[in-house]
Write a structure and sequence with these properties.
about 500 residues; alpha/beta; Alkaline Phosphatase, subunit A; 2 domains; 11-stranded mixed β-sheet; 4-stranded antiparallel β-sheet; globular
Length: about 500
Amino acid sequence: MNKIFLMNKSLMAGAMLFLSLGTTFAAESAKPAAKKIIKPNILFIMVDDLGKEWVSSYGSEDIKTPNIDALAKNGMTFNNAYSMPSCTSSRTMLLTGKYPWRNGYVSHWDVPRWGVAYFDWKQKENTTFARLMKNLDYKTCAAGKWQINDFRIEPQAMKKHGFDDWAMWTGSETGNAASDKRYYNPYINTPEGSKTYAGKFGPDVYSDHIIKFMTKHKEDAMCIYYPMALVHRKWVASPDEPKAKSRLERHISMVRYADKMVGKLMRSLDDLKIRDRTIVIFTTDNGTTGPHLGFSAMRNGKMVVGAKGELSEAGVCAPFIVNCPGLVPEGVESDALTDFADMLPTFVELGGGELPEGLIIDGTSIAPVILGKKQDSARDWIMSLGGGGGRMTEHGVRGAKVFGSRVIRDKQYKAWVSEQKQITRLHDLKKDPWEKTNLLDSELAEHKVALQKFQAVVDSLPDQDASPLYEARAANPWDMEIKKARTSKKINNK
């Protein structure tokens, strides 16, 4: 793949095509009984718990992912894209455009197990990209794993967050054994409510729901969020490889099935004749399940151990591929910096809109990069934080630490920041991609300059991470008792 230094003819053609879309469609819209789209569709695909070492276009030597590889070959591959280290923080950051230290979701939290009114749609600080895209006349849909509301408490949570349609695994609801199923016989919430889909395989239900939505709205502008249930444990043998026995064999079968789902959606876009105006983004929410239960795979001659929940590059530097024939340059490898905070403003810019006045976000749009209009993003650094489990207190959900550990990096250097808000490690990722050599005490001028840069970022951060914003409500029968410290039946929002 070519580095993105000079815009070649194909890049220029893609950019010109995007600029001409409005004119072309406007002219054709004059024809009677023909509704034409002037905005690109967005399909955001996010696999659960999968590092680069399991994607062959990123150098995996232990598996082939042909459908994901095709997106990379005919699109743009990012080398420096950050997710968060765990599920919840990646999702809330993606939806809000805010870092976990700002939106409060600095720890992992399985909402349905506790019954808390998590991620309250009423809070303006929790505005989602879906709500903003609806304001731009997009039809919105989500399918897969939501995780950040309890549908028993908020049965219309998805609608309130801006989604017109959805098919979401509910999460494992305390007191409801059926809800533990996300794969075989999945328990799924739709606008009609929650139920078990007996005899079905969850990933097929989620992808079929998206295809049905796309078929219905192919003449509309669509923004679709597909947070896959795959390949998170509990590991199962996929329908294509029912004889997979060991945990590793089952994991591999699930990775292949995730790749199959990507191919299935791409074929549907082709069949609906909307492939060339649908910007597809493929990524993952964090690295592969960690070393305590995890898997190792060879990547570019190096054995990589799964690092979910960790701040190493294997845990947070996610695969990130963007593809749209004619709009996104083909065969490009980009070192531009980006992280999940950038997605909300990127979607809004792609949809032709502007951010609401007064909305505070941490991200910056990368739309000019993925459309080939600019060679680099506006980001001078990116950040990842939000690992470990949250805790329930008499005041509600709280992060595990006052100031959570985090990492900050640019294209060359990476700083590790402790819970004491001190930089403890500095690595030159170009020379030391596996982060073995700590340059913190180096006397080299370039290392001191890097430290000064990252220290300025650290100094700009608050000393205490925010807490989640949600509405206080009465206790539920399944709520956790907090060492009998709860003084009332209501969770206080303090």
